[in-house]
Structure formats: C-alpha cells, structure tokens
Amino acid sequence: MTTRKNARSLSLLILAPVLSLTALPAMASDAAALVKDGKLLVDFRYRLENVDQAGLPEDATAHTVRVRSGFQTGKINGFSLLAEAEAVAHMNQAFNDSLNGKTRRPVVADPDGMELNRLQVDYTGFTKTTVTVGRQRLNLDNQRFIGAVGFRQNEQTLDAVKINSQAIDKLDLTYAYVAQVNRVFGHKSPQGEFEGDSHLFNAGLTLAPYAKVTGYAYLLDLEEQPLLSTATYGGRVAGKYALDKVTLTYAADYARQSDYENNPRDISLDYVGLELTATYAGLSVGGGYESLEGDGVRGFATPLATLHKFQGYADVFLTTPANGIDDAYGRIGYETKLDWGRITGFSAALWYHDFEAEKINRSYGSEVNAEASVKLGPKVTISTKYADYDGDGTFADRRKFWLSLEYTY
After folding, report:
1. What is the tally of structural domains in the chain?
2. Is 408 a residue whose pLDDT tops 60?
3. Which residue has the higher pLDDT, 7 or 316?
4. Domain containing 155: what range?
5. Mean of the per-residue pLDDT values for the chain?
6. Can you say whether the dihedral through the CA atoms of 138, 222, 197, 175 is positive or negative?
7. Do 360 and 295 contact (CB within 8 A), yes or no?
8. With bands split at pLDDT 50, 70 and 90, how would you rate the model's confidence at 35?
9. In percent, how much of the chain has pLDDT > 70?
10. How many CA atoms lie within 13 A of 193 on its CB side?
C-alpha cells in the first residue's frame, strides 16, 4: 500500500514538468517569453528562537537560516512552470530540532536539510480557471484547517492536483486531490510525510460588500496517522463593515468532524470560532472565542492547519487535548506606513489567551503574546515575537522569544 501511494505522489511531481511540454510547439517562437515574462523567486530568513520550558534541564537557543530560490516561467499556450528549492541550515546546535536527539532541550522544529519545496505546472487555458499539478503551497480561508505553516523555516506543501475557478460570478471554487503532505519536519523525519488519498473542497460566495460565505469539506486519508483520518464539514461567514471612521471585521465558523477511511475510532466532534475586531486609524482592538470539542479520548483534529496562528504563539496546543479546548482571547494592535528613510512600515500587537478544557471543568492556563515588525522598503522585514505561557499545572510553563530578518524578492 505504501509503495502504491508513494508512486502516486512521485507521479504528480513527474507529471508537472511533463505537462509543460504540451507548449513545445510554440516554444520556438515564444521561448524568450518564458524568461522575459517569468519571475525569479528568492526568499531568505535568519531567525533566532529561544525557548525556556519547565521540566527540561536546559533551554533551547536556535540560530537557523532558510533560503528558498526558484523561478516561475511566463506562459505559453496557457502553461507555466514553477520550480523552487529550499535549504535550512543550523548556525549552532543548542536545541532539539526533533531529529538530533537533544531531548534535554525544548523542541525548535526546524531541522536542517535541502529539498524540493515546490515543483508545479499551472494551466490557465480555461475561463477564469487554473489547474495546478505538482508540489505546491495551499492556504484556504484563514488556514485553520488547510495552510502552509509559513512561520516554520520549512513550510508545509502538498503533492496534489488543484482546480481553482472563478468562472461563476462571485463564486470561488477550489478542489484538490492530495497524494502526499510534506510536513515542516522535513523528508528525513519519520513524521515528515503523510501519504494517502485526501480530497479538499472549498466554495466561497461573495455577498458584496459585507460578507463572504464559505462551505467546505476536507476528507483526510492519512496512512501514517489513521487516527487523524477525518471528514470535516463546515461553513464560515467573514467580512467587514465600515461605520464612519471605524471598520468592523468579523468571522464566524462552525464545523463537524467524523472518522474517515482507515480511522479505527468513531468520532463526532464540533468546532466553533468567533472573532470581531474594530479598527480606527491603524489602531485595532478585538477578540474572539474558539472551541475544539474533545470526547475524553481524542480532540478535534486539524493536522493540516497553520497551527502557529492559533491558540497562542507558544505552540502548546498543536494537538487538541483529549478533553478539548476553549480559547477566549483579546488583541490590541497598531499598524502604519512610514516614510523614515529606509523604514517604510511598522506594526505591533499584544494578545491575551485564557484556556479551558471544553469537556470538563479544568483550566489549561493562560498566555500573553507580544509582537512587532519593521519594514525596510518592500523586500526586507525585521520582526520580533514573545510568548509567555502559564500552564496552571496541566501543561508545562514555557517562554519563547524570536528575532527574524527576512528578505523576499
């Protein structure tokens, strides 16, 4: 079974460049367009991450560098090709990267290595429709269920066939067949890949100017983790409304999750998410509530999500506890454009999270997050973040600090 599914993933990677050969008859006259209308892809990030976690005898201090480079061609006969390599390097060894066995220190899940990050062909020959085949990045809605985990040095990609269409006015349709999930732990890790036959459906209807209504079905068949093979059906309403000089941004989500394919357990769990933010002249104040149900054995699972965006930056709840979790949070932030020489923008935010078990009466503690970033022109960003989680005795206390420099071309 594993060999068969490995072959499916490999066939998608081979098919991507082979499909582009369909354009060969036009290449003799239009070959220059491939380069002239193409785009060079360069992304560099240096990051310092420091973690102090209760119960471990040593802290973690990680200096890591991530470099991505590639090229996206122009179009010929509706086809374009994107190829991108990625390398992650360690500048020191004082942390547990999830592979090096340094279990006396906290995990900083950025193992070193070099790999193919993306290899995809896009076809745009149909009306307002794009077909993408190969290894690709995919972010859907707010990334609560499907995301690329852009925070980690090695992002999450999918070996997939994706169809996205806006051929019907105000309707955005996406379907993806996923043969393999390439996770943030890298190809060297036993946790680095999820193989299977997964199907992702997402349909969003824009009700201008105040709302977008989205329905979705995410059917995950994950061979290596059968307990995470789930069918999640749900809906989302999100939008913004202007009240004079104040803009209200809102979102409401509901989803129901059940077992799927090779999952040996019976699952029936709910997800609820609510959020409201008011913005005035760059200052934003808001809050929300998120609930992931648990049945005492398993919690609502979101294995393909951009998890770092949710439930605090300390990443305590990457796996939903068996008794579920309720997260009530507030945020105050500020963002502005600047014209101070090379400094062109500044943003900052402060968060507070209060965590409770969903099924039983138990506190999971609280967390404070702070973040700030400065833009130096259009290509360089310097950012810093801090997370302080007080576990209330259930989960280990931890403090995390990040300092990053990123250049994107």
Report:
1. 1
2. yes
3. 316
4. 2-408
5. 94
6. negative
7. no
8. confident
9. 95
10. 14
Amino acid at 78: G
Instruction: Give the whole-angstrom CA distance, residue 357 versus residue 391.
Output: 12
Digit-coded pLDDT (tens) for 378-407? 999 999 999 999 998 889 999 999 999 999
Q: What is the CATH number of the domain that holds 111?
A: 2.40.160.10
Contact of 196 with 222, CB cutoff 8 Å: yes
Strand partners, 144: none
Residue of 20 and 77 predicted with greater confidence: 77
- The string over 45-66, giving b where at least 16 C-beta atoms fall within 10 Å of a residue's C-beta and e elsewhere, is bbbbbbbbbeebeeebbbbbbb
| Number of residues assigned to the chain | 409
Question: How many Å apart are CA 381 and CA 48, to the nearest integer?
Answer: 14
For residue 242, the number of C-alpha atoms closer than 13 Å in the C-beta half-sphere is: 5
What are the structure tokens assigned to 67, written together?
A: 């470099």
Structure tokens at 333: 């932030």
Determine the pLDDT at residue 216: 98
Q: Both tokens of residue 173? A: 């349709």
Reference 78, options 12, 136, 18, 129; nearest CA is 129
* DSSP 8-state code for residue 152: S
